[in-house]
């Protein structure tokens, strides 16, 4: 009861752009040092055994960081789902960047991150199993077309932006709950009909998910066949399996975080349900995606985990406990006196 009373008392603040802006600024402060450390690990601490995947990992890291900072710092989207109405709270607004351009940036970055995940899996598949096949002639045009689709998927919505005055009037007729927010002159209406936006989103999600799953299955099947041919004793195959599992964890867990915002988006649009506190929460969760991705990357890849241990854990331990030595594994941390 007390929790419910506390929530209802603070609901107006949770609905507000001030709450969203404050939360996203906190996220930015957390993200920047973690992302910089992740980039440092990839660029300077990737071992020779991972050299073939270095560019793909850096590419995914770049787009994930770009998406994170676009949401939490550059645009700060305050969107009033189920209506495609909102405004920017980010720094691009103060540099005079138009709202449609900011929307274009956000919408295109989501599938671009997905394509970058596909690129990592395709890179592994090509280097391990397809160097001497016809795929080597098609892989670059294939990946290029995926990136092109990501960058252009929002164009139909962008070129069909309605007259703002008439569109706002129609939106308020459909969703009267938005009336208390309509006094803000900065509100921008992307569309009065969500179907074009929604189906564009569904097509891109299906395309990116389908290609990623396809290469993941190809990798898994070929590794299994090769390990059976070599009686599961080949060390190289075992190392590739470990690396594949690490990549799978790195890419799949952050995607799971996005399931909640996407499901709520679908539910809100088709039911007409409006709850601005949940809308704000969805963008906070989405902004958490890249931070989680970078953190998991550092944890699951042993070379980067070792760098983190040497840079932070061991130095802090030496300061707190001089004369002792710290040893660790992924699952446990133990101390032994030197």
From TrEMBL:
Domain of life of the organism encoding this protein: Eukaryota
InterPro entries associated with the record: 7TM_GPCR_serpentine_rcpt_Srh, Nematode_rcpt-like_serp_H
Protein keywords: Membrane, Transmembrane, Transmembrane helix
Transmembrane regions: 20-43, 55-81, 101-121, 142-161, 196-219, 242-266, 278-300
Pfam families listed in its UniProt record: 7TM_GPCR_Srh (PF10318)
Keyword ATP-binding listed: no
Protein name (record): G-protein coupled receptors family 1 profile domain-containing protein
Organism: Caenorhabditis latens
């Amino acid at each position: 009861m007390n929790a419910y009373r506390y929530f209802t008392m603070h609901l107006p603040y949770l609905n507000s752009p001030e709450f969203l802006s404050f939360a996203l600024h906190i996220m930015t402060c957390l993200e920047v040092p973690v992302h910089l450390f992740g980039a440092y690990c990839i660029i300077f601490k990737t071992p020779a055994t991972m050299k073939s995947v270095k560019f793909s990992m850096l590419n995914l890291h770049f787009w994930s960081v770009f998406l994170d900072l676009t949401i939490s710092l550059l645009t700060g989207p305050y969107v009033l789902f189920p209506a495609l109405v909102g405004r920017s709270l980010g720094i691009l607004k103060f540099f005079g960047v138009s709202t449609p351009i900011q929307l274009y940036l956000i919408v295109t970055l989501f599938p671009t991150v997905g394509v970058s995940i596909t690129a990592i899996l395709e890179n592994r598949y090509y280097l391990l199993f397809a160097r001497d096949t016809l795929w080597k002639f098609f892989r670059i045009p294939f990946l290029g077309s995926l990136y092109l689709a990501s960058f252009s998927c929002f164009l139909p919505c962008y070129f069909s932006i309605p007259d703002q005055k008439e569109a706002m009037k129609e939106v308020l007729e459909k969703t009267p709950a938005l009336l208390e927010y309509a006094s803000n002159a900065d509100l921008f209406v992307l569309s009065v009909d969500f179907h074009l936006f929604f189906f564009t989103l569904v097509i891109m999600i299906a395309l990116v998910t389908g290609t990623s799953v396809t290469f993941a299955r190809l990798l898994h099947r070929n590794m299994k066949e090769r390990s059976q041919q070599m009686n599961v004793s080949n060390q190289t195959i075992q190392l590739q399996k470990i690396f594949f599992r690490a990549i799978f964890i790195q890419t799949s867990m952050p995607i799971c975080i996005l399931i909640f915002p996407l499901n709520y988006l679908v539910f809100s649009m088709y039911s007409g349900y409006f709850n601005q506190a949940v809308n704000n929460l969805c963008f906070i969760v989405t902004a958490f995606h890249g931070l989680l991705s970078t953190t998991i990357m550092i944890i699951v890849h042993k070379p980067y985990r070792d760098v983190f241990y040497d840079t932070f854990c061991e130095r802090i331990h030496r300061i707190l406990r001089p004369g002792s030595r710290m040893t660790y594994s992924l699952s446990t941390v133990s101390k032994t006196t030197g």
